[in-house]
Structures are given as structure tokens and as C-alpha cells.
Amino acid sequence: MVAIIAILIGILLPALGRARSAAFQTKGLAMQKQLTTGLISYASSNDSWIPGLNTTGLRVRILETQTDKPLDNKSNLPTQTWDWMTAALDGENLPAKRAERLLKLMNEFKDPAMREISQPTSNSPQDIKDLASTMGGFPGVSFIMPSGFLWFGQQVGTGVNTTAWGQPDWEKGACKIPTAYQPKYDRVGNASKKIAIADAHRVVEATGSKIDGRAWISPDAGDDKAGGLYGAFVDSGAAAKWSVSYARKDQGNPSNGANIATTYRHGGKMNAAFWDGSASALAEEESRQAVFWYPSRSELGSEVQDEAKLDIRETNGKFFVP
User: Which DSSP string corresponds to 127-167?
Assistant: First the structure.
């Protein structure tokens, strides 16, 4: 009898594990679709602008220079310059204090398959460090937005009150967005092929799981090769060799490939939601196509994964994202 029970357990446990994994993936997709719906709704109400560095992040840049900590007074203010999630949720049911707001975003919208715990970087504000210490750390980042959709196509200025922060030269090494591009929902191109939100494990150091808790995170940090540049909400995407979340080992990225297994956490696949509101699971090789991560008519550079070139167009010896 004992032997029979042991055999049955051996049969049932793998099946239960697969069922649980499938349930986790389904729930993660549902979260992404919910957030994408919020992003599309925000864009529809704000002349198509996508929340992030050059839009909602402008408020953070201005308020961070003030001394009365206004970011701790309103639940609908972004937690970081790159924070798109607060806008997607319209600040609903979020705490007024920024540290608690950031924690809730990371915790409430945590992929059930995300088991990692992050600690703040040394340059994070003290309130973030104190809260992380009390809570035993922050949940690991579950979802990101591709940076390619958040830049302007040209540099207009880099001041606190400047809304047009152009794509930096170092990022153009992977893919240069069109000069006329603006971070707007109606400018991304084929919405069914452009990722709005994707699975990612984003930490900013190759060793140790560190989350950047600063509110104002400067995009003028090319030497960092995206290490802390995008904060907790954005990554360059799976087509770029320097990506913190997606790049493989020995490609010059800050994480040295350490995040691959946790990013592709659903049986070697990642979930992705697209700007048309659809969502699906992508295998690693498929996910690296540049078409997913950059606006249409962006020009491919040399610092892209080989798979990024699977779905591109050639014109006069140059390669462009469809």
C-alpha cells in the first residue's frame, strides 16, 4: 500500500506543478492586460501621450527639487521619473507616501511566479531603505515597459522643466528611433507587434538583487549602460545586448546574464502585453526581435542580439524595424 501511494504521489506531483505554473502564467498575463488597458486609457485621455520620463516623469523632476516632499502627499504622483504604472492605475488606492507607494506597486502587481526579493541600492533615499528594512526587502520587479517607446527622437534639452529628452547616443547603438518620433500611443506603429509591458527581472547589479529607489533617475547616464538608468519600471528590451533583464552572459550587460532565468520564468517563456491590448507568451529567441521593442521605422544598430534581425526591412543597405 505504501509503495502504491508513493507511486501515485510521484505521478501527481509533476502534474500539480505544471497546473500551478500554468495558473501563475495566466494570472501574470491578466495583470499585464489590466495594466495595458490602463495605459491605453491614459493615452486616450492625454492626447495619446505615454506615461513615463518625458510626460508624467516631468512632474517628478520638478517636484523632486522642492523641499516640502510633495511626492509624499499625493497618491496619484509617479514614484519615479520612469514610473508608468501609477498612471495606468490612475493612482487608485495607492498610499500618499512615495516609499509605501513604490512598495505597493511592486507587491500588488507581482507576478505569482516572481519569487525574488530586492534590496535598495546604496543611493536610494533613506525612507526607501527604512521601509525595505522593516519589510525584509521589496518584491522583485515583475514587469517593465520598453524604453524605446518613451524617448523623443531628437534632443531638445535636458533641463528639469524640459519635456523632450531625446534618445541618447549610446542607446542608438542597438536601435535608433525616428527623429520625428514622440512618445505617443499613435506613434508606436503596428500596435499588435509593439510590446507595452513585458515580464522582466530587473536588478541593477550583477551580484546581489538591488532595486533603484530614487525618484529622480537621470537618463543622461550612458556610461552606466542601463544599469540603474531606468529605475524599477523600464528596460531597453530583449533586442539589446546590454539589457539588464534580457541579455545573455558575456555581452557587456551589468547583470552579466544573471536575470535570464527569472525573466523567462514561465517554462523558458515570458509574458508580454501589446499596445493593442492583446497578450501572449514568447519564447526567448522569439522575444528578441527588434520589432517588439522599438517604434516602426527605427534603424537597427550593431549592438543588437542576432535574433533581433529576424523581422526587419532593408533599404539601401540599412535595416529598419517594421
Answer: HHHHHHHHHTSEEPP-EEEEGGGTSBSS----STT----BP
Specify the amino acid at residue 163.
T
Give the pLDDT score at 159. 65
159-193 exposure pattern, b = at least 16 Cβ within 10 A, e = fewer: eeeebbbbbbebbbbbbbbbeebbbbbebbbeeeb
Q: How far is CA 302 from CA 51, 168, 241, 318, in A?
A: 29, 15, 10, 11
DSSP category for residue 179: T
The gap from C-alpha 258 to its chain's centroid, in whole angstroms, comes to 17
Q: Splitting the chain (322 residues) into consecutive groups of 10 residues, what average pLDDT does each group show?
A: 59 53 86 97 97 93 82 93 96 92 94 91 91 92 96 79 83 95 97 97 70 84 63 94 90 84 95 97 96 97 89 84 95
- Burial of residue 261, with CB atoms counted within 10 A of its CB: 0-12 exposed, 13-18 middle, 19 or more buried: exposed
Amino acid making up residue 68? D
**Does residue 59 sit in helix, strand or coil?**
helix
- For residues 148 and 237, the answer to whether their CB atoms sit within 8 Å is yes
Span between the terminal Cα atoms of the chain, in Å = 62
- The full set of domain ranges for the chain reads 2-320
Count of C-beta atoms within a 10 Å radius of residue 19: 10
217, β-bridge pairs:
none
Return the amino acid letter for 189. Answer: G
